[in-house]
Every structure is written in C-alpha cells, then in structure tokens.
C-alpha cells in the first residue's frame, strides 16, 4: 500500500516535472544575437517565442559572445546586466552566426500564414521614396528582422533595389522571401507627391526651418557637391541645393513652415500601364491601390487599366483613409468592382494618420480607432485588415487595449458566430501592421552613421557592425509582433 502511495506520489511529481519541461520547451530560446559595436561591447537579444520554431540554425557558440542582453518577451524589453564586455571586434563569421540565431521567427511562417495569425508585418519604404541606396539597405535589414512584405514605389529601379536587399539578406541567412508590393494611386493622394522650391529664390537670411523639419533629410543646402557614387552605376552622385527629389516622400511637413511660402507640392498619378508591366515581374508579388474611397469611378478606371495583370498578384491591397459612416459602403463598392477579376487574397489597409508614425505615441491613435470601427462592422466586405498611417512602437499596446491584438473573429464577436463564415472565424481579425516612417527613422539613424563614415553609397552588408545595430533597431519593432 505504501509502495503504491509512493509510486502515485512519484508519478505525480514526475507529471509536474514533465509539465514544467513541456512548458519550457514552448519557449524556444532563440538566445543571443546582436553585436553592438561602438562601445566595444556585444549586446544580445533573447527571444522567447511560443511559436513552433525550428532551431536548426541555432548556433550555441554565439552565446559565448554575449556580454549584455536584451529580452523581447510579450512585447516588453528587459535589459540584463552585462556579463562580459571585453569583445573588441566582430568578424563577418560572427555576424552570420548571430544573425542566423535572430532570424528564426521569420523562417517559420509564410506571409499568408502571418496574415491569418495576425502577426503580419509590412515595411513601407514609401510610395514616393526613391532613394535606391536607402531602399536596398532598409530591405536588407527588415528582411533579416522577419517582415512579411516590403511595400515600395511602382518604379523598376526601386523594385530592383528592394529585391537586391532581400537577396543580400538571404545570402547572409537562408530564410523565406518577403513579398514585394508596389503602390499605385487612382487619384490625387498625399502619398504621391513631392515638395519642390528654387533655393535661389530663398532669402539669404532665412533660418531654413524646412531643412530642420524634413524627416527624410530631403532638403539640402550643401551647394552642388559630389557625395559619393550612385548606387549600381558607380557614376558620381551629385546632390543639388533644395529638395532632393528621390528622398522626398511627400509628408508635407516642410510646406507650412516656410515663412516665405516658397515651397510647392507636386502631385502625380502612377501610370497604370507601367504598373501592370511591373506586376508581371517574377520579383513582384502584390499590389496596393491608394484611394480616397470617395470616387468609385477613378477606382474602377484604374482597376480596368490594370487589366489581367492583377492575376499575377498574390495579394491585392486597397489603402484608404477613414471616411466615417461612408467607409463600409465605399469598401463594398470597391470590392464589387474588384470581385469579378479578383484571383488572389485581398487586404484593406486602414490608413489612420498618413505618414506620421515617426512623430510620437499619439500618432497611432487614429489607426487604432479605424481598426475598432472596422472590427465592429459586420457588413464589411471580405479581406484581411491591416493597420497603417501613424503606426509605431505604441501600436501593439493600442490594439491590446482594444482587445484586437491577434484576436480571432469569434473571440472578438463572441456572442454571434452565426453570421461569421467558418473559413474566417479562426483567423485574426486584424491581420497585421504596416510600419513606414517610424521603421525608416529607427534604422535610418544607423544608415546615416554608416554613410558618414563610408559614403552615401555604402551597402550595409559590407559593414557588419552597422548591420547588427540596424538589425537590433528593426527587431525592436518587428520582434514584439512576431514573438509572443
Ligand atoms: S515633403 Fe516631407 S519629405 Fe518632402 S521635402 Fe518636405 S518635409 Fe521633406
Ligand atoms: S524655409 Fe522657405 S525660404 Fe527658407 S530656405 Fe526653406 S524654402 Fe527657402
């Protein structure tokens, strides 16, 4: 009897121990990663992911390099006391080893699966941003950080730069390729404009507030100067005074600050024929149509002009602002236009406060409010929902407060499942988040630092110490949505 009791007690203790071990297994320790050079130290992230992630690339030896670590767990970052800070140098091999460790979350999930789970992340390079050197470097860094999609201007050289960045990242680590999305517009749109002015018209005593306010370093008064070589051509890269057109992404912040009203905005509409040729490229996966949603005629004209090219796209996204009470009817109208020729998945990008994510915490409020409005609307048309416009490091907290972060349709509308199609009931109501200005800002700081040392045409994969700093920044944004 006593033996039986002991066995029972032992089996109970064993069960408890096994349960503990299983629980620990769920937290795949992706440990270690990132070398931060500059202070002769190595910093490391420690990821705890509840997702089922292969650890085949996990290089335990990388642990030996850790002197300081950051932990991303449930969106919170904890900083650990440095264990060792005597590392003075990182080699390219060390970089690869560390990167292999950190990119694991992105290997485990296809972009489509991320949309279903609600952990889709898109990098917005900018519908008008055309600095191919920055675009290549941003694409490289955010591919390593695990984004699902990279959205860029519908321009052949920009698309090539994005794909070169992706392939350079995949040369470092074998990981799945993010989708490449190109953006077009059906009418006048904030995302499709450039600022311009003639610097020779500016009063000599102007304090140049335009230069200070520009988040893209797109206004220069350096005088005509050669600042390096052009990307891919090795031709001298000459920057002129005034607006550097390729860097201007149309945020409009310079317009109201000019005391002499010298700055104009130039709007444009992307050519549908050129765009449809681009969609057919093997290295373009998705298209996004920016629309106000108010004029279905323009939307219909663009959709028609794109013709059969939309059949080449894996995902059709429609980006629209919050039109209040008319939003749902506009969405239904646009869906009815697309539906007869829609051969892929579709997505609605909820553009809260366009191009403002880098401004601060409050910028994300409008995108969250838009998400809440759409989540409650049962009559909305099919398609994934994704936030944009003002999104930043505070967006996940905002979604959590509203009970919308990676919440399924049935969980959110718990009392009424009869109206929900079974094919979508288990999917996340909000498919994910697109990050633009904020994502470019945090990595852009590292790019500027690299360029000040190595020239404006520097490729970040040639400078591992900067690559790892940039990757750390990118992961601070992408990590919390990928690793829970
Ligand atoms: S519109 Fe924005 S990005 Fe363009 S020059 Fe003005 S401030 Fe800079
Ligand atoms: S603020 Fe206006 S006047 Fe002054 S430098 Fe800029 S564009 Fe010229």
Automatic annotation (TrEMBL):
Record GO terms (molecular function): 4 iron, 4 sulfur cluster binding; metal ion binding
Start and end residues of each 4Fe-4S ferredoxin-type domain: 193-224, 239-268
Domain of life: Eukaryota
Keywords carried by this UniProt record: 4Fe-4S, Iron, Iron-sulfur, Metal-binding
PANTHER family in the record: PHOTOSYSTEM I IRON-SULFUR CENTER, PHOTOSYSTEM I IRON-SULFUR CENTER-RELATED
Pfam families: LdpA_C (PF12617), LdpA_Fe-S-bd (PF25160)
Taxonomic lineage of the native organism: Eukaryota, Viridiplantae, Streptophyta, Embryophyta, Tracheophyta
UniProt source species: Psophocarpus tetragonolobus
Region feature Disordered, mapped onto this chain: 1-23
Protein name per UniProt: 4Fe-4S ferredoxin-type domain-containing protein
């Amino acid at each position: 009897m006593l033996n039986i009791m002991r066995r029972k007690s032992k089996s109970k203790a064993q069960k408890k121990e096994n349960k503990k071990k299983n629980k620990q297994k769920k937290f795949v320790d992706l440990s270690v990663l990132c070398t931060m050079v500059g202070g002769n130290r190595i910093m490391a992230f420690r990821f705890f992911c509840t997702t089922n992630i292969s650890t085949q690339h996990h290089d335990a030896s990388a642990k030996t390099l850790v002197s300081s670590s950051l932990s991303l767990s449930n969106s919170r970052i904890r900083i650990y006391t440095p264990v060792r800070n005597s590392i003075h140098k990182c080699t390219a091999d060390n970089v690869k080893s560390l990167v292999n460790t950190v990119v694991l979350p992105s290997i485990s999930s296809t972009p489509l699966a991320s949309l279903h789970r609600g952990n889709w992340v898109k990098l917005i390079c900018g519908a008008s941003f055309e600095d191919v050197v920055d675009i290549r470097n941003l694409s490289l860094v955010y591919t390593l950080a695990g984004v699902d999609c990279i959205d860029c201007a519908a321009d052949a050289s920009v698309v090539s730069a994005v794909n070169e960045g992706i392939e350079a990242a995949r040369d470092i680590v074998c990981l799945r390729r993010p989708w490449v999305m190109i953006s077009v517009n059906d009418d006048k749109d904030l995302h499709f404009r450039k600022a311009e002015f003639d610097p020779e018209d500016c009063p000599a005593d102007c304090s140049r507030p335009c230069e200070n306010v520009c988040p893209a370093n797109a206004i220069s008064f350096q005088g005509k100067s050669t600042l390096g070589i052009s990307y891919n051509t090795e031709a001298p890269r000459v920057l002129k005074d005034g607006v550097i057109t390729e860097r201007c992404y149309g945020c409009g912040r310079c317009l109201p600050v000019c005391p002499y009203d010298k700055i104009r905005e130039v709007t444009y509409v992307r050519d549908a024929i050129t765009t449809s040729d681009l969609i057919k490229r093997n290295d373009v996966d998705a298209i996004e149509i920016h629309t106000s949603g108010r004029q279905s005629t323009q939307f219909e004209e663009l959709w028609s002009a794109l013709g059969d090219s939309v059949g080449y796209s894996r995902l059709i996204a429609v980006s629209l602002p919050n039109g209040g009470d008319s939003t749902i009817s506009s969405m239904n109208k646009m869906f009815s236009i697309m539906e007869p020729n829609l051969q892929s998945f579709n997505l609605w990008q909820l553009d809260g406060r366009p191009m403002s994510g880098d401004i601060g915490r409050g910028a994300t409020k409008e995108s969250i409010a838009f998400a809440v409005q759409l989540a409650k609307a049962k009559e909305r048309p099919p398609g994934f929902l994704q936030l944009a416009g003002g999104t930043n490091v505070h967006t996940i907290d905002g979604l959590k407060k509203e009970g919308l972060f990676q919440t399924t349709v049935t969980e959110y509308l718990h009392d009424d499942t009869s109206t929900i199609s079974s094919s979508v009931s288990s999917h996340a109501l909000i498919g994910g988040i697109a990050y633009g200005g904020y994502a470019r800002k945090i990595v852009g700081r590292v790019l500027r630092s690299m360029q000040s040392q190595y020239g404006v045409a520097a490729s970040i994969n040639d400078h591992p110490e900067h690559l790892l700093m940039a990757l750390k920044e990118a992961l601070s944004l992408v990590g919390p949505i990928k690793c829970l």
